[in-house]
Structure formats: C-alpha cells, structure tokens
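R.M. (postdoc): so does anyone remember the format we settled on? I'll just put the structure tokens first.
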C-alpha cells in the first residue's frame, strides 16, 4: 500500500512527511522546496494485541510505544501542484506520473490562509487567502491529469472496442491497471454516473471529463490534512472547509508533531504519536519549555496534532484495511519474540488470504485458523477483522 501526499506548494507536505517518517527531508518557507519525490515509511497506530495477554509485542518492522503498535505504511511526498500542472506548469507532469501507483491521497492544505495559490507567503497585512480554493484547484488538476491519460489512448481504444465488440469495463481496467483501476471500480462508476458505454467513441469532451473525474475519485480516494491549524486563522478556516467539502478533513499541526517526535527521540519528553498530551522527562531550556507549551495549547484544542489520525483514517476508514497478527498459541516465535509480525490486509480478506500473505506454503496447506482471543476455530472463508490474531493450522 502506498499513500501519496499532494497539495499546492509550501503547505507543509514535507513537514507532514518528515513528522510521519522521521526521514531527513528539506522543509522551507518557499514554493517548490521539494523537487524530487521523497519516499519513506510512516506508521499506522493499532492496539498492541500482546497487551491483552499481559505482554508487549516485539515487532520485526515498525515499533511499539505505550500500548500501541505502529505498523509501517509507505508514503510519497512530491513537488507542489499549481494551476496548469497537468499542462506542465510548475514541476508539472513529471511528478504527477509519480503518483499513478498510489492507493490514496492525503491532500495537505494550508488553512492558515497565509500562502497564496502558488504557495508564496501573503503579506501579513494583506488579504487572507481562502484555502477552500486550493482544494478545488488540486481536484481540477488531478482530474485534468486523469483526462490527459485517458485522452492519449481514447480514440484508438474506443474504436477497437466497437470493432472487436470488447467489454468496456474489461478494456478500461486493462488499459489503466497502472492507475490501480479495477473492474469493480469501472462498473461502479458506470452505475453511479449512469454512463452510456455502448458507444464511448462518440462521447463528448464533457462526458470524457466526467468519466475522468469519476475514475479519479473512485480509484484515488482523498483525505484532507488541514495543516497549520496552529496559526491564528487556522481553526476558523478548518471549520469553513469542513462545511464546504465532503472529504474527511482533519485539523493538522505537522510542525508540532515533528517537534514532539524530535523531543521524544532526544528523551526530553515521552510522547505517543496521536495522543493529545505528553510527559516532560528531561531538562528543558526556557525556549524548549515555551515551544512545548505552545504545542500543548494547540493540541488541547484540536485533540491531537492530527498527523496520526490522518494516516489511520486513510488506511482503516478510507481504504478499509485491517491489521491482523499471525499468532501461535504461545504468541512467540522460536526466538521468544512476541507477535513479531502484523499485516495490513485489504478489505474483504479471508483467513486463507492471510495464510497466503504469511507464506505460500502456509496458504497451500491451510486447514483452519484459531482466533487467539476467543480460542475458536475459523475456516478459510472467515473474514478478517481489525486486530485479529490468528494461528494458522496446516496439514
Ligand atoms: N505554523 C505552521 N507552519 C508549518 C506547519 N507545517 C509546515 N509549516 C511550515 O510551512 C513551510 C513549508 O513547509 P514544507 O513542509 O516545506 O512545505 P511543502 O508543502 O513540502 O512545500 P513544497 O515542497 O515547496 O511544495 C515551512 O516553513 C514549514 O515550517 C504547521 O503545522 N504549522
Ligand atoms: Mg516539500
């Protein structure tokens, strides 16, 4: 699974990325600081199943903090998008193409209203910029990008469809598999938009644009990280965009999350990502004390810095993945590691899918699975639930 950060320049994409991945990337208060995409590993936060058994797990990948387990997800941070990007403006198409393979978008929006449409800081005495306009701009550019991809092949593809009597959904899926388009996606769009697919070769530009938009929405679901909520107009603008758009929108303070993670790493505080509070445990200088107090004030109001919530909502509520632990009766592997693995499984995965995820041989010789919490046996068609721990019994 891969999640892409998008947004206009200078909104805090790289700050969000750095806070989520703790990788060393450039953050700067000017547009197009990021040129080459950054690729890193962030984490979703799930309950540590070992806690139910009076233990803590020892992850092979990711980490445990408090009673939570942090499970890796891949993130992509790319250059900022400006109007006309799909025609090559700004850093244009080259970076849009980096996004073809993502499963979902996190759109980072600067809700401070302190940067204009191109990401340049607005004059402090000047007009406040309305961040809702950015959401529309990004939607439009993403739709035009999809339209461009469709247009490249549309004439030939749809002509062939008619001549060779090919199925619309099958051919579209084949042609756009790189964009993670599935046959169900296309069928769903046809129903939802009441598309006439008998003669797509005759579609008007408007019909094609509608299809591009529907395809983008269906195959690249989006959550909005309303970033810089710590700034004076932040909360007000956050409430405004929440009323105007029906995406999931989370108030976000990426800079605060980054500062807390860094202070935690330096052992100055104890901070579990996503919580609304932290404990001071080191000797703080006056400046550090003040900075941390300011962060505390903001996250008391917003409940958390939002960064962890954005990732969790994207993976578990939008993409509907579930986190499942392979578990033996003793919970440990041969070396005494408690629940070393935790897998993120796509929606509707079964116990058998899970067995195959662990190893092909385990899938091939699957007999049944034991739920470690209930000790009940479940069959191959059992639908995985969030936080399950399953021991797979094989032939
Ligand atoms: N007040 C505040 N400033 C933030 C926050 N997040 C990022 N910033 C600042 O916003 C500016 C831009 O941050 P970046 O992370 O470089 O933004 P970007 O979207 O990656 O920018 P480009 O790569 O140029 O598109 C920097 O000055 C950050 O310190 C936040 O939560 N609050
Ligand atoms: Mg950047």
């Amino acid at each position: 699974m891969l999640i892409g950060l998008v947004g206009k320049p200078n909104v805090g994409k790289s700050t969000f990325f750095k806070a989520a991945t703790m990788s060393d990337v450039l953050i700067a208060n000017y547009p197009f600081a990021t040129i080459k995409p950054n690729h890193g590993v962030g984490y979703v936060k799930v309950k540590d199943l070992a806690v139910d058994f009076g233990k803590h797990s020892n992850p092979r990948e990711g980490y445990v903090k408090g009673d939570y387990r942090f499970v890796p997800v891949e993130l992509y941070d790319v250059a900022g998008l400006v109007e006309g990007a799909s025609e090559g403006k700004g850093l244009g198409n080259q970076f849009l193409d980096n996004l073809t393979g993502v499963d979902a978008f996190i759109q980072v929006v600067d809700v401070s209203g302190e940067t204009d449409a191109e990401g340049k800081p607005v004059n402090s005495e000047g007009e406040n910029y309305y961040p809702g306009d950015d959401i529309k701009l990004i939607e439009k550019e993403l739709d035009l990008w999809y339209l461009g991809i469709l247009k490249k092949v549309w004439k030939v593809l749809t002509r062939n469809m008619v001549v060779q009597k090919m199925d619309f959904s099958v051919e579209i899926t084949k042609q756009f598999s790189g964009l993670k388009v599935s046959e169900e996606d296309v069928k769903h769009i046809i129903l939802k938009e009441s598309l006439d697919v008998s003669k797509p070769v005759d579609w008007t530009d408007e019909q094609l644009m509608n299809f591009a938009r529907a395809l983008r929405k269906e195959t690249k679901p989006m959550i909005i990280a309303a970033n810089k909520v710590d700034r004076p107009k932040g909360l007000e603008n956050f409430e405004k965009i929440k009323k105007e758009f029906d995406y999931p929108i989370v108030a976000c303070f990426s800079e605060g999350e980054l500062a807390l993670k860094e202070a935690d790493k330096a052992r100055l505080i104890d901070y579990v990502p996503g919580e609304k509070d932290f404990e001071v445990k080191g000797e703080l200088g006056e400046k550090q004390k003040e900075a941390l107090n300011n962060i505390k004030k903001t996250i008391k109001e917003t409940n958390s810095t939002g960064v962890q919530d954005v990732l969790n909502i994207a993976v578990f509520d939008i993409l509907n993945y579930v986190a499942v632990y392979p578990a033996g009766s003793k919970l440990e592997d041969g070396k005494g590691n408690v629940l070393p693995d935790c897998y993120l499984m796509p929606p509707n995965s079964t116990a058998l899918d899970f067995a195959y995820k662990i190893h092909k041989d385990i899938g091939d010789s699957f007999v049944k699975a034991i739920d470690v919490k209930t000790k009940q046996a479940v069959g191959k068609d059992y639908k995985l639930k969030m936080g399950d721990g399953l021991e797979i019994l094989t032939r």
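R.M.: ...and that's the designed sequence above, right after the tokens. Also worth knowing: The pocket of guanosine-5'-triphosphate (ligand 1) is lined by residues 7, 9-15, 27-29, 31-34, 79-80, 227-228, 230-231, 253-255 (CB under 6 Å). The first strand starts at residue 2 and ends at 6.
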